[in-house]
């Protein structure tokens, strides 16, 4: 069980995340919200970056950290002049390395090529291989499908389902609802730095309306006052 208590993040005087308490069972959890809702800030805070000192973030009663959590950030830095294989060898060996070799038969990252030659999608898949190879109990995936082709998204979905079957907890942010609706056990709606609703798998009717409610109201009001282009 992942437990979040008294989590608060702020940029100066502006509070961007405030979660008094939240629990998440093992499985796949989607985190959705419009830009600025606090999705990336949440994953960073769960990993230990930028959260308040009083916050408690625990996995099965143990503080979450590098030993039980892996984090794929939305933007990854790769040192220039190294290959994908050299990148992976920097922080994994043994079973993790074997798992990566198996998974890469599906993801098809050219590990012996320089990372500087990779496309955006290849870089995303390399970062994903690194995170998966760590074999942690909790995985935080920030927009993992960005830049991936349809086949790679399909493979990623299968990998995530397998992780859930093995008792892992996976948190995924995405600006695309479709894959999350099909993949996640629960989808948590994050608005103005707080979780406002939770949608269970198979009962996501109303998710899109809830997500866009404020935007639709504002858009309708402004469009209604717009005369539009002249005929």
How would you sum up this structure, described in words?
- The protein is an alpha/beta fold and 231 residues long.
- 36% of the residues lie in helices and 26% in strands.
- The protein contains 7 helices and 10 strands.
- Strands 6-7-8-3-9-10 form a 6-stranded mixed β-sheet, with helices on both faces. A 4-stranded antiparallel β-sheet has the order 2-1-4-5, covered by helices on one side.
- A hairpin with a 2-residue loop joins strand 9 (186-191) and strand 10 (194-200).
- Helix 3 packs antiparallel against helix 4 (120-133).
- The longest helix has 18 residues, at 207-224.
By DSSP (H or I, 4+ residues per run), the number of helices equals 7
Mean pLDDT over the full residue set: 90
- By helix and strand content, what is the structural category? alpha/beta
Numbering strands along the chain, what is their spatial order in the largest sheet?
Answer: 6-7-8-3-9-10
- Low-confidence parts: none
End-to-end Cα distance: 60 Å
Q: What is the general shape? A: globular
Say how many strands there are.
10
- Rg is 19 Å
Strand content: 25-35%
Largest sheet: 6 strands, mixed
What portion of residues is helical?
25-40%
Order of secondary-structure elements: EEEHEEEHHHEHEHEEH
How are the SSEs ordered, and which strands pair?
Layout: E1 2-11, E2 14-24, E3 27-32, H1 39-47, E4 56-59, E5 62-63, E6 69-72, H2 84-89, H3 95-107, H4 120-133, E7 138-142, H5 150-165, E8 169-173, H6 177-183, E9 186-191, E10 194-200, H7 207-224
Parallel strand pairs: 3-8, 3-9, 6-7, 7-8
Antiparallel strand pairs: 1-2, 1-4, 4-5, 9-10
């Amino acid at each position: 069980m992942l437990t979040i208590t008294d989590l608060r993040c702020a940029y100066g005087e502006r509070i961007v995340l405030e979660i008094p308490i939240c629990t998440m069972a093992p499985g796949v959890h989607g985190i959705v919200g419009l830009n600025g809702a606090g999705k990336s800030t949440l994953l960073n805070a769960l990993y230990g970056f930028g959260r308040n000192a009083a916050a408690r973030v625990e996995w099965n009663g143990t503080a979450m950290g590098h030993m039980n959590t892996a984090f794929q950030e939305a933007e990854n830095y790769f040192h220039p002049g190294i290959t994908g294989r050299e990148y992976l060898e920097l922080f994994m060996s043994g079973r993790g390395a074997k798992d990566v070799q198996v998974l890469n038969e599906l993801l098809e990252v050219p590990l012996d090529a320089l990372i500087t030659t990779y496309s955006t999608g290849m870089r995303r898949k390399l970062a994903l291989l690194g995170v998966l190879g760590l074999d942690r109990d909790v995985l935080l995936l920030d927009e993992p499908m960005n830049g991936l082709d349809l086949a790679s998204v399909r493979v990623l979905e299968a990998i995530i389902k397998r992780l859930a079957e093995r008792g892992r907890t996976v948190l995924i942010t995405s600006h695309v609802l479709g894959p999350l609706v099909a993949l996640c056990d629960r989808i948590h709606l994050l608005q103005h730095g707080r979780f406002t609703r939770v949608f269970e798998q198979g009962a996501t009717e109303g998710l899109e309306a809830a997500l866009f409610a404020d935007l639709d109201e504002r858009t309708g009001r402004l469009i209604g006052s717009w005369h539009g282009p002249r005929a």
